[in-house]
Design a protein that fits this description.
The complex is a heterodimer of chains A (about 170) and B (about 550). With about 170 residues, chain A is mainly beta. Chain A is built from four helices and twelve strands. Chain A has one domain: OB fold (Dihydrolipoamide Acetyltransferase, E2P) (Beta Barrel). Helix content of chain A is about 10%, strand content about 40%. The longest helix of chain A has 6 residues. Chain B is built from 18 helices and 18 strands. Chain B is α+β, with helices and mostly antiparallel strands. The two termini of chain B are about 55 Å apart. In chain B, the strands form four sheets. Chain B has a six-stranded mixed β-sheet. Chain B has a five-stranded mixed β-sheet with strand order 2-4-5-7-6, with helices on one face. Classes of the chains: A mainly beta (about 170), B alpha+beta (about 550). Chains A and B meet through β5 and β6 of A and α7, β17 and β18 of B.
Chain lengths: ~170, ~550
């Protein structure tokens, strides 16, 4: 975590390191991922449903010759009723996880956003605790009245995390 | 396409020239330090190898010279001769003469055309006997100034690089199919012509890369005479090994993967199949047991047999054991034919140590062999006659890159099943299907084959399958009969599509934990197509059947 005490509340100086986020909407909230974790953003390619996988794993898709898994985080975190189908055009963020690429499907076009690193506040402990999983919430950024939850995708997308509901 | 003969000669040439270069280097070292032990050992070894290779290829004259040279170097090594005086020029001439003869082979000339071989052999003989060699005039010998230098026609390449090349070709083929489909959709004649050309070129490229990876089965088989000797000695048995079909070609990685399996089968055959000499004589067999390893091609597959003439597999014991272990009920076991009973030998951990003698020791780790063959998309079969012997047959693909597959449709999506595991394709009407204990059964060529709806099997939850009702079966049923480990299973699909050669990409992480799918392939339409893994599917059915 960056040192945020000194900067919070003060005017941000020009030398402040800036980070770029890709911001997208899940349910009613906005979430952000550091741009270096995002390989590309694309219109969701045709997805082949894969039997014997949890429902939030939408299936597999051909992304420029790479076969990647496409997952729906809204369904994973119950942010939207699971019977609501995806719109005809959706977008996929291809994320570089540790040793594979995975796609995250979102309903609206993701937007890039540059913010000074210091405005990311550490998430309150109680939020972390609600979600039992590893601390994949890096922090919360307040930008012009918007609240953006910054996710650490590498922690969110471990294979055991993704496949935890896999029937044995 | 080159003939096998020519290919062998090129390999011989490349190795022989390499030996010749090394000989020239070492003999020069020896001239500077006449007692240099490593150089002497190398020269001795090089002569020996050249001799063996040349004789195997029928170049007897090269073999003869190399043999004589080997003898002299042996004598120098054992300090009976010293690398000095008149011996030195004779040996240098010997190395040069070998070089000339090897080049003669390369130019497709008889080695007899090389001058001075007779004199050389006579001189070498004299040296062995301790006489003085007859040396020609020094002036006549030295034409070394216009000696030719050659580079080998063969390169050694890491298999990793070939793997990479093969992967790239696989990607290329997928894109090519896509381009071909697109060119037909767009309908531009120029584009179609280019696409057709691309098709041919990439086909040839794929074939060439696959061809570059092929090695002789013999490169593995030839390691077995020693293994057989060692195991037979340890087991106090007499075994004669026969190798057949060493020149059959197969992908190098496939050979690598089956190495342990073959070792296992051979050890089993000697340890548990072939009896002690006294026991064999009592049974009216010759004391020496016969073990045969053979390879043959059958269509696109390579068949490898490991056959012994030992005591065979006792079906009754296996049947009893399968019931004891709860793999099958007593009633069902009694009705199974021999082949079906033998299939239990491949169940994980089927044969435990205390059972070894009882079922002739077969089954120890056979499941491991089975898994290795499965991973290649191959088949493992066993055939045995009690008292007469056992034959294991490995059915292997020639190449790992491309597999024949049957494409079908389910819920408007394409799936593929490798042809290796497909038995037949049938369409049946409801009245041709019976329901027994909640499972559909079809009578196919005097055989009752369980049939299951693939949709139900794939989308069933964690519990067992719901028993089938008569009302569930409506209309014509398109069924693919798959065969794994001698168990047939019919899969009801929506529609048969076609047969096609596909390039299978392994499932990427994190979905690779789902073993139902052996991988994915991309169709010409760009659609992702899941490739079903028949072994896993069969296991799933057995575990979930009502």
């Amino acid at each position: 975590m960056p040192e945020s005490e000194g900067a919070s509340g003060k005017k941000v100086s020009k030398q402040e390191p800036i980070i770029q986020l890709i911001v997208f909407r899940l349910g009613e909230e906005e979430y952000g991922i550091r741009i270096e974790q995002v390989k590309e953003v694309t219109i969701t390619p045709e997805v082949a449903r894969m039997p014997k996988t949890p429902g939030f794993v939408k299936g597999i898709a051909n992304l420029r010759g790479d076969i990647i898994a496409i997952i729906d985080l809204e369904e994973r975190f119950n942010l939207r009723p699971s019977d609501e189908p995806l719109p005809s055009v959706s977008y996929t963020l291809a994320i570089e996880a540790k040793d594979y690429t995975i796609g995250i499907v979102v309903r609206e076009v993701p937007q890039p956003l540059s913010i000074p690193i210091s405005i990311i506040e550490k998430a309150p402990e109680f939020i972390q605790d609600i979600n039992i999983q590893d601390k994949y919430i890096e922090g919360i950024a307040k930008v012009e009245g918007r609240i953006i939850v910054v996710l650490d995708m590498l922690k969110l997308l471990t294979p055991s995390e993704i496949m935890q509901l896999q029937p044995k | 396409m080159k003939s096998r003969e020519q290919e062998y000669r090129e390999i011989f040439m490349a190795e022989a020239l390499e030996y010749y270069d090394a000989m020239s280097r070492h003999i020069s070292e020896l001239e500077k330090a006449p007692t240099d032990e490593p150089a002497l050992n190398e020269l001795f070894r090089l002569m020996h190898n050249l001799k063996s290779n040349a004789r195997a290829m029928g170049y007897n004259q090269i073999g003869e010279v190399a043999h004589h040279m080997e003898t002299i170097f042996g004598l120098i090594r054992s300090k009976e001769r010293i690398f000095t005086g008149s011996l030195v020029p004779v040996l240098f001439t010997g190395v040069d003469t070998l070089g000339n003869m090897i080049r003669a082979v390369g130019d497709e000339q008889e080695t007899e055309t090389v001058d001075g071989v007779e004199e050389l052999l006579n001189n070498l003989d004299r040296l062995v006997k301790g006489e003085e060699p007859v040396l020609p005039d020094a002036a006549a010998v030295d034409d070394d100034a216009n000696r030719k230098l050659e580079l080998s026609d063969l390169v050694y390449i890491q298999i990793k690089k070939l793997d990479h090349l093969l992967n790239l070709v696989g990607e290329l083929i997928i894109d090519r199919d896509r381009i071909l489909t697109l060119s037909q959709e767009i309908g531009s004649p120029a584009l179609q012509a280019t696409a057709a050309h691309l098709f041919r070129i990439s086909d040839e490229l794929q074939y060439s890369v696959m061809d570059a990876r092929l090695v002789n089965v013999g490169s593995l088989f030839n390691k077995f005479p020693r293994v057989v000797r060692d195991v037979a000695t340890a087991e106090q048995k007499e075994v004669e090994l026969t190798l057949v079909g060493q020149d059959i070609q197969i992908d190098r990685n496939i050979l690598q993967i089956i190495t342990d399996s073959l070792l296992h089968l051979v050890r089993n055959a000697i340890g548990h199949g072939i009896e002690q000499p006294t026991e064999r004589l009592k049974a009216g067999k010759p004391a020496v047991g016969q073990l045969t390893m053979s390879a043959q091609t059958e269509r696109d597959d390579v068949l490898i047999h490991v056959a012994d003439d030992g005591r065979g597999i006792n079906i009754a014991s296996v049947r009893r054991k399968a019931v004891e272990r709860g793999l099958v009920s007593k009633e069902v076991a009694a009705s199974l034919d021999d082949a079906a009973v033998r299939a239990y030998l491949f169940e994980p951990g089927f044969s435990m140590a205390q059972q070894v003698t009882e079922i002739s020791g077969r089954g120890v780790g056979l499941d491991v062999v089975k898994l290795a063959i499965d991973s290649l998309g191959g088949q493992l079969r066993v055939d045995s006659t009690l008292g007469q012997g056992t034959t294991f047959t490995l059915v292997l693909p020639t190449s790992i890159a491309v597999k024949g597959a049957l494409l079908f449709e389910l819920d408007e999506r394409s799936y593929a099943i490798p042809l290796m595991h497909t038995d037949s394709v049938v369409s049946l009407w409801p009245e041709q299907l019976h329901i027994v204990g909640g499972t559909l059964l079809a009578d196919l060529q005097e055989e009752r084959v369980p049939v299951v709806s693939l949709r139900r099997l794939l989308h069933n939850g964690d519990g067992p399958l719901v028993p089938v009702q008569r009302a569930d079966v409506v209309g014509r049923q398109d069924i693919i009969v798959v065969n794994y480990n001698n168990r047939k299973l019919g899969l009801i699909v929506d529609r048969f599509l076609r047969q096609q050669a596909i390039v299978i990409k392994p499932m990427s992480k994190p979905l690779d934990t789902i073993d139902l799918f052996g991988g994915v392939t991309l169709l010409g339409s760009g659609q992702v197509c899941l490739v079903l893994d028949v072994p896993a599917l069969t296991r799933l059915f057995l575990a979930k059947r009502p």
